[in-house]
Model the fold of this input.
Amino acid sequence: MTATQTRAPEAPTRPTDNAARRWTTPGVLLVLVIGLAALPTLQESLGLDAYLIVFGYTLFFWVTQASAWNLFSGFSGYLNFGHAIFYGAGVYVTANLARESDPNIFVAILGGALAAAVVAALIGYVIFHRGLAHEIFALFTFALAIAIGVLVRNVDAIGGGGVLMVSMVTYPEFLGSVNEMLYYLGLLLAVVAVVAAALVQRSRLGLGLFAIRDDERVAETMGVPTFRYKMIALVLAAAIGGASGALNAVMISFIEPEATFGIDVSVMVVLMALVGGRRHWAGPVIGAVLMFSLSDRLTGLGMTELSQLLTGLLLVVVIVGLKGGIHERWQRRPRAGLITFLGVLLVLLVTGLGGGFIGALLFALLAMIVVLVVPDAWWARLVNRSREGQPR
Done:
């Protein structure tokens, strides 16, 4: 080709998988949120069990708490074993407001978020300003949660032995009954938590947190403002956890310091993030859906102790067979995981063998995990054999 010849125009390139996924994922999530928001309205016409509203709210609560925990601890590597501190701050804001009057639920949620954010700022300044290690942060938050529980029990002005929600919160009438109000606002907070985690993950703040998780000293030498980034992420995570706690106080009705600041909430959010995957915003969502569905079904059958045993067993299986969590393996086999999940869910719903939607959801998730946990070498052999068996 001579210098005077022009090069033929190139054919337009097809959008990459990443670009397509960038538009597809928000669209799918938007449709899912709209469907969930319409569930209370369509409940009677579809003949759905009324318990689905309570189940849905509680699931949204765990998604919110696990996503909030992961926003800081999962992204930065600073494990927080005292997340109940922030959750409890929100709970006791609503509880103490309800002692004297009928508080507006939105005021309580904002108050819970603010109280938790202030507590997180104080904790972060004490730990991060001194440059203490990750292990110190984990032990400090764990011990502080226990200490705050003891303090609350012995100070009547805060709560004492317990707070009975004798008053009812006020809220707009269009939110329906109390359970429907909890459902709608729980869904809203879950969306806020997931969107916040997704935005942080893809922002400069997220990149800085990942650098801190990999090697904080190297991140500092590269110019990452580690102290500022850790403070922002911790305060944001605490505010979301506190807002969700303030709403959950309405569901609890009777608030006790041991149950609020105990290890149950803190341990559960850690397990959910570990099972789902700490390196992506979707990991805690997957972990929350799986673990809460498992716990709910077994507890409903009167198998509380078995629920704890299987939860621990599931954690071991995921840690050994799915290093990095379910989401990380899902990225390797998205089609196989999705087909398995939807196929099993549809079959169980049509045949009724799952014992209802919640049971079908649980079995579909467990079937998906079985597919994902197959070692890569074995999976490659299965795929090759299936391809060889297909007619050419």
Remarks:
- The longest helix spans residues 17-46.
